[in-house]
Specification:
The chain has 13 helices and 5 strands. It is mainly α. The chain folds into 2 domains: 206 residues, HUPs (Rossmann fold, 3-Layer(aba) Sandwich), CATH 3.40.50; 90 residues, Tyrosyl-Transfer RNA Synthetase (Orthogonal Bundle). The structure holds tryptophanyl-5'AMP.
Length: 330
């Protein structure tokens, strides 16, 4: 079976953007692929983190992975920093990656802000570590939201650069898999901005652990427009279109059918149904999450078992890679 790799940063809460854009697809892929899903804590430290909160986020994200339907008996679930080969391979790739390629990465430009000189090297090299995550396991399929597409393209370029440099066909170009409906879930405050766990306003996102009351509040306060009727128009009505997308992504209802369903509804009626839908779909995830979080020892055990499995694959591949590069491989 082909191998799938994907990951989410360990920072605070996961949002419905992470869930619909990534995790929901991962759950489905478990039956047809060898799946490896990671909590990418090394990527998290490209921005300042509180060490205690980071470790806690890692455990709580693992609980959310499992509560969402990822099965540790089917998929390898682990924390990136538990397998040190990720950083080792990232270094090897860093030595084959022209800086010009990294200069084009839009996420670096966004995250570094105005003062790029002050951004850390890790933030700049972030996509190289991503390529290492994927290629360390020979993964060929990478299910992510649209914002990560450019990074996967870079991983493909790195494959070419490495194979050419060492005259091998060792790495295979990974394919980026995007969810059709939940390509890009947008902020509830600004339909032109991605919903993000790092946005200053908690009202810009729905977190997977938000209570039903909070979800109702957030959807009620979600920005909309003064146009009557509920219909999709991404260009002129980005906020309503985003809410429709969220509805479709949760329910699996096609966009056309959803527009027919909401014809004649007022915005507030539409919002009521949307929040009820979100609450209903998140309920089993939240219930399972609560149970899992009562036994953190068990979660740590699952993460360790996942890390052991990942280590075993990575160690073998790393020895082959070191041989290709001419590094010490005893
Ligand atoms: P991260 O932690 O920012 O996001 C995790 C996953 O969630 C998706 N996502 C969204 N999808 C749709 N709409 C949104 N609003 C939204 N917000 C987040 C992201 O596209 C992603 O799939 N660098 C990556 C993590 C990573 C990784 C990897 C991914 C590290 N190594 C290797 C794949 C393969 C990141 O920061 O994702």
């Amino acid at each position: 079976m082909p191998t799938v790799f994907s990951g989410i940063q360990a920072t605070g809460n996961l949002t419905i953007g992470n869930y619909l854009g990534a995790i929901k697809n991962w759950v489905v892929m478990q039956s047809d692929f060898d799946c490896i899903f990671c909590i990418v804590d090394l990527h998290s430290i490209t921005m300042p983190q509180d060490p205690v909160a980071l470790k806690e986020a890692c455990v709580s994200n693992l609980a959310l992975y499992i509560a969402s339907g990822l099965d540790p008996n089917k998929s390898i679930l682990f924390a990136q920093s538990a397998v040190s080969y990720h950083t080792e391979l990232a270094w090897i790739f860093a030595c084959s990656t022209p800086m010009g390629w990294l200069n084009r990465m839009t996420q670096f430009k966004d995250k570094a802000g105005k003062d790029k000189e002050k951004a850390c090297l890790g933030l700049y090299a972030y996509p190289v570590l991503m390529a290492a995550d994927i290629l360390l396991y020979g993964a060929t399929h990478v299910p992510v939201g649209e914002d990560q597409t450019q990074h996967i393209e870079l991983a493909r370029d790195i494959v070419g650069a490495f194979n050419r440099q060492y005259k091998v066909e060792y790495f295979e170009e990974p394919i980026c898999i995007n969810s059709k409906v939940a390509l890009r879930i947008m902020s509830l405050r600004d339909g032109r901005k991605k919903m993000s766990k790092s946005d200053e306003s908690d009202y810009s996102r729905i977190n997977l652990t938000d209570t039903p009351d909070l979800i109702i509040q957030k959807i009620k306060k979600a920005k909309t427009d003064a146009v009557p009727n509920i219909f999709y128009d991404e260009e002129n009505r980005p906020e309503i279109s985003n809410l429709l997308n969220i509805y479709c992504a949760f329910t699996g209802v096609e966009l056309d059918a959803a527009q027919v369903h909401f014809k004649g509804h007022s915005t507030s009626q539409f919002k009521d149904e949307l929040s009820a839908t979100i609450i209903e779909h998140l309920k089993p995830v939240q219930q399972e999450y609560k149970v899992l979080m009562t036994d953190k020892g068990q979660l740590l055990k699952i993460a360790q078992q996942g890390a052991d499995k990942a280590n075993a694959i990575a160690e073998k591949r790393m020895r082959e890679i070191k041989q290709i590069v001419g590094l010490w491989d005893n």
